[in-house]
Amino acid sequence: MQRNAALSDARGWLALFVRQAINTFQSIASEDPSGDKHMDLFGQMMYAPLLLSSLLQQAARHSSKVEIVSRRVEGDIHRYTYRDCHIRAMQLANALTAHGIEAGDRIGTLAWNGYRHMELYYGVSGIGAVCHTINPRLFTEQIAYIINHAQDRFVCFDMSFAPLVEQIAHQCPLVEKWIMLCDERALPETFPVPLLSYETLIGAQPQEFDWPRFDEQRAAVLCYTSGTTGNPKGVLYSHRSLSLMAYGSALPDTLCLSSTDTVAPVVPMFHVNAWGLPFSAPLVGAKLVLPGAKLDGESLWTLFEQEGVTFSAGVPTIWLGLVDYMRRAGKHSTHFKRAIVGGSACPPQLASSLRELGIKAVHAWGMTELSPLGTVCSPSHDYQDKSAEEQKCIDAKQGRVVPGIDLKIVGSGGAELPWDGKSAGDLMARGHWVLDRYYGAGQTALEDGWFSTGDVATIDPDGYMQITDRSKDVIKSGGEWISSIELEHVAMSHPEVESAACIGCEHPKWDERPVLIVVKRAGSTLSAQQLLAYYEGKVARWWIPDDVVFVPEMPLTATGKLQKLVLKQRFGRHLVDAAKPSA
Ligand code: AMP
């Protein structure tokens, strides 16, 4: 008995001792060096804010000899290295500082993809100012509107945009300097406003600059939406959001970029950061090829062959032009193996045409408000086990999320819909590079922490998202939804169709019925009846459009997308006016 009591006593002492030891250890560990106790426990790793300047600095130090090659608007090819780019970005930073540009000031750019635009991306954001990339394809009133709305202090523009600047300069009284991206000799003799040459601006500046360290949440780049309705809205990206997107987009299941790649962003640097490639290419040390203003099939193929481009990104129209040229000229591609197709849905016909030419089309989805990368269609772990038919269906989808982004689909009333690949609902996004509020807006654009993309989509059990429509383009026939994108894909697969848009037209019985608007290939004699008969067996019978209208050309937005609003205004009453019976 006595022995047991002693043992239990000893155990009690031991437990007390251990408890006290743990308490002492915890209080030491949670003690702040300043002496405060009970603080949160922080990691003790080096802190460096995620700043864009560090991406270029990294490339200049660790990929110093890797080239940036640009086709200039002057017509020639310019070639230098990441090291040279960094030096000139530092000269620009010195020049801007000397001219009184301060953190938070906006500097506008009207420029194609080229080395000087790259220097502006980094030199402007590097000093804490904001690089405001302006889409020159917008209407001139919209361009003047966004320059004034952003309160740009300087605007830098390519020589080829001089006529545009001539038109808008007097509508932009806040702009203090118009800087032409050229050397002194190329400046025009007369111009409605004083001009400065970019080369003169930076030429005499020191080649060293100590990039300031500041809060990674500060703004770096400003980009306005294309604004199909109302005025364009500004999306203000932070250093943190763009840096995280650069890391996320380089991953193997995203764009799979490496130092062995030669990357050619065809998507313009004035449209949502050229899908982040000016940041992710230096991050991995890939060679960068900037194609300037010549984006036709022949010019792209020639540049890609000369420079050994392995990877590129652009909208479907660009790839249609390349395919067309390569077929006509009997060309093949030596190194170019991967084309990111985004901005609008990739017609399955385009993917197979590229495949026949040895180029893999990788479908991607995003938007200005997502900086823009949301999903990329890369194979999931069991892709290889699927049948060829299943793989084809997967490849046609917009893909799986880029790590750092989350998606959901919701039905009417906001209830989340199942990921069954069939239920279509409003697509919502959240993540490290998703917009919170528009520039200058007093309140958040989020609903319960999610951004409503305005797209309608399905998500399958493997997480592959597929856009079925823009919510405003869905055709609502007799209370059911018809996907305009799917009907367009069928039309586009017809060999005599150059481009097709499907819109919902007013209908006395069904509210709306689909009508196809089509541009035929040159020399085609295709009739409406023949094209409608082509739909038999490809879609449900009640989805088959009620009519076809042939037009000589399609109205396009500033970013090369179909302007369905214009088509709806023109043809919205087509069925009522023609009093056609529905199918
Ligand atoms: P923007 O902000 O001008 O880049 O336009 C974004 C919109 O383009 C998205 O909300 C989609 O409606 C559309 N979009 C982008 N990528 C795709 C894609 N791969 N497939 C279908 N639509 C797309």
Describe the structure.
Residues 486-561 form the AMP-binding enzyme C-terminal domain. This is Medium-chain-fatty-acid--CoA ligase. By secondary structure, the chain is of the alpha/beta class. Among the domains are: 50-238, Rossmann fold; 473-579, ANL, C-terminal domain (GMP Synthetase, Chain A, domain 3). It contains 17 helices and 25 strands. It has a 9-stranded mixed sheet, with helices on both faces. Strands 7-6-5-3-4-8-9 form a 7-stranded mixed sheet, sandwiched between helices. Strand 19 (451-459) and strand 20 (465-470) form a beta hairpin. The termini are far apart. Mean pLDDT is 92; it is low at 27-31. The site of adenosine monophosphate has 21 residues, from strand 14, strand 19 and strand 20.
Portion of residues in beta strands equals 15-25%
Distance between the termini: 97 Å
Q: Ions, cofactors, ligands: which are bound?
A: adenosine monophosphate
Number of strands: 25
CATH architecture classification of the domain at 50-238: 3-Layer(aba) Sandwich
Looking at CATH, which topology of the domain at 50-238 would you report?
A: Rossmann fold
What is the alpha-carbon Rg in Å?
28 Å
Please state the structural category.
alpha/beta
Q: Can you give the helix content as a percent range?
A: 25-40%
| Contiguous helical run count | 17
Mean pLDDT: 92
Low-pLDDT residue intervals, each spanning 5 or more residues:
27-31
Strand order of the largest sheet: 2-1-11-10-12-13-14-15-16
In one word, what is the shape? globular
Which CATH top level class of the domain at 50-238 fits?
Alpha Beta
CATH superfamily of the domain at 50-238: ANL, N-terminal domain
Largest sheet: 9 strands, mixed
Domain AMP-dependent synthetase/ligase: 57-439
Protein name: Medium-chain-fatty-acid--CoA ligase
Domain AMP-binding enzyme C-terminal: 486-561
Family: Belongs to the ATP-dependent AMP-binding enzyme family.
